[in-house]
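// run 5 | inverse folding | seed 20
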């Protein structure tokens, strides 16, 4: 009975050691494959896209405000689109 317990504990210990070693090797390989500045590049790209979107939103809002301003007294319509 003691021999079974010994081999059970030994197998369990070897399994834990092998799993730990495999996890470390995978983490090291992943660290070597990922570019160091990936987070910086993603942050810069997302920030740039948001800034550009905000600029376009303000341009569009200004254009709509111009189009929907008080109607022209001569023809009773709104102002002409400055983009056309």
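// decoded
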């Amino acid at each position: 009975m003691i021999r079974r317990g010994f081999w059970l504990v030994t197998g369990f210990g070897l399994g834990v050691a092998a799993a730990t070693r495999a996890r470390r090797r995978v983490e090291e390989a992943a660290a070597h494959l990922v570019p160091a500045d990936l987070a910086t590049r993603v942050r810069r790209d997302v920030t740039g896209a948001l800034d550009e979107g905000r600029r376009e939103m303000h341009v569009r809002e200004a254009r709509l405000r111009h189009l929907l301003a008080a109607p022209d007294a001569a023809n009773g319509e709104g102002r002409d689109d400055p983009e056309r």
